[in-house]
Amino acid sequence: MGKHSRAKKARKELSDWVKDVLTRAHDGQRKMARETFEAAQTLEACVETGLNAGGLYDMARQTLDEVFQPKLACKKGCSYCCHIPVAASMPEVINAVKFAEATFPPKRFEALKERLRKADEVVAGLDPRERALRNVACPFLENDQCSVYQARPVACRAWHSLDVAPCQEGFQHPDAPPETPTVGPILFAGDAVREGLRLGLVDAFVDGTRVDLIRGAHWIVSDDFALDKWLAGVSIPDEVAFKTPEP
């Protein structure tokens, strides 16, 4: 077998392996979400599902990292990506909010609620494209660090960069951001888990629509009945749902 044929075979085997990792992540998350919500549609089920999604992604990520060994530019205190709109499922948002509520002192949690309120006011007045260009800081951000890192959504876990310069450039010029160098399978694993979660919720007859992290978190902390309404089968309000800007 020639060198070209061996390289082609190796690429094919790697591609098949990646597809298997992604498929198992997708199918496993769908099954866990469905079974959890079929057993009980409660606050505890939401938190468990949010935790499971993060844990399953982290397992897939570890498997991929062992093979691709990415040299990430991401480090503590770098928060350019924490100004990008985030789409998350309701369980992920609830998990983040309840993590903060359980671990923050009362004054710190009240400060988070106030940041959510102010950020929500800003976001509410923007259309999807304006939202993408505004660089609204995530309210969970404190001193350029994620205050709910252990409970952050899968979208946040999956996003990464191999070079900080494009991240800084994109932050400074969000209207014309350069391409961020990434490892495709790491991003695709996040997509696989998130889609599996969405379908698992639909399988269990709850709305799987993803929400804007800011708007969804503020909805949860400001409306005492938000969670109950969603668990009862009421659709997520249109103003809370995440909207992708037109190209």
Strand content: under 5%
Task: Give the end-to-end Cα distance, rounded to a whole number of Å.
Answer: 46 Å
Largest sheet, spatial ordering of strands? 1-4
Q: What would you call the structural class?
A: mainly alpha
How would you sum up the global shape?
A: globular
According to DSSP, the number of beta strands is 4
Helix proportion of residues, in percent? Answer: 55-70%
Order of helices and strands: HHEHHHEEHHHEHH
Provide mean pLDDT, rounded.
Answer: 95
Largest β sheet strand count, sense and barrel closure: 2 strands, antiparallel
Uncertain regions spanning at least 5 consecutive residues: none
Number of helices: 10
What does it look like?
This protein has 247 residues and is mainly alpha-helical. It is 62% helix and 3% strand. It contains 10 helices and 4 strands, in the order ααβαααββαααβαα. The strands form 2 sheets. The chain has a two-stranded antiparallel ribbon. Strands 2-3 form a two-stranded antiparallel sheet. β2 and β3 form a beta hairpin. The mean pLDDT is 95.
Layout: helices, strands, pairs:
Blueprint: H1 3-39, H2 43-68, E1 87-88, H3 90-103, H4 106-124, H5 128-133, E2 141-142, E3 145-146, H6 154-158, H7 164-172, H8 184-203, E4 211-212, H9 213-222, H10 226-231
Antiparallel strand pairs: 1-4, 2-3
